[in-house]
Design brief:
Layout (H helix, E strand, L loop, with lengths): L19 E6 L5 E5 L4 E5 L5 E5 L12 E6 L5 E5 L4 E5 L5 E5 L1 E2 L5 E2 L2 E6 L5 E5 L4 E6 L4 E6 L9 E8 L5 E7 L2
Length: 180
């Protein structure tokens, strides 16, 4: 609970942020920050110095529009919830665009407003779609849509999912609130 370091500040230059929404540390201790309103993911070293910016504003593959969340898969690829474009984009360790999965819509494998992501040890992606109140599931790191579900409390009351994570046993943990 002791403060160690502060990084960043408000702005658009490298190492500065405009509405950071998620953070992830990779196996090489690089810090990835969803810099949502700058429409990029920034990669920083352990001293907080900007090393790389992933994405530029836009809609084409590799471009981002309000990225919200980050996860890495078992192969080390970075998955970015590209909320404004209603998709998840995949990048390699060098920040190069690899693939996209999901798109706008309400069918299996589609999103209205993706918000968060968790990826299990088998490469399954669990993406919170706050626009529909469901979690969309993809097999093999987004290669194919497996379906979607709406979480519920033990008594059957539906839950609006907000965030997802995986516990030490690989069980999906969902935070949210009951839907009235």
């Amino acid at each position: 609970g002791r403060h160690v370091q502060t990084i960043g500040g408000y702005g658009g230059d490298g190492g500065l942020f405009n509405h950071p929404t998620d953070v992830l540390v990779d196996a090489q201790d690089r810090l990835y920050v969803c810099d949502t309103l700058n429409h990029r993911v920034q990669v920083l070293d352990t001293d907080g110095q900007a090393q790389l910016a992933i994405g530029v504003p836009g809609t084409e593959p590799g471009a981002l529009n309000a990225p919200k969340a980050l996860a890495t898969d078992p192969e080390g690829y970075l998955h970015v919830v590209d909320a404004g474009n209603a998709r998840v984009q995949v990048f390699d360790a060098g920040g190069r665009y690899v693939d996209t999965y999901g798109r706008y819509g309400t069918d299996t494998g589609q999103f209205v407003m993706p918000r968060d992501i968790a990826i299990d040890a088998y490469g399954r992606s669990y993406v919170v779609d706050s626009g529909r109140g469901v979690i969309v599931v993809f097999e093999r790191s987004g290669a194919e849509a497996a379906g979607f579900f709406q979480p519920e409390l033990p008594g059957g009351e539906k839950v609006m999912p907000l965030r997802v994570s995986l516990d030490a046993q690989g069980e999906l943990v969902v935070t949210g609130h009951p839907i009235a």
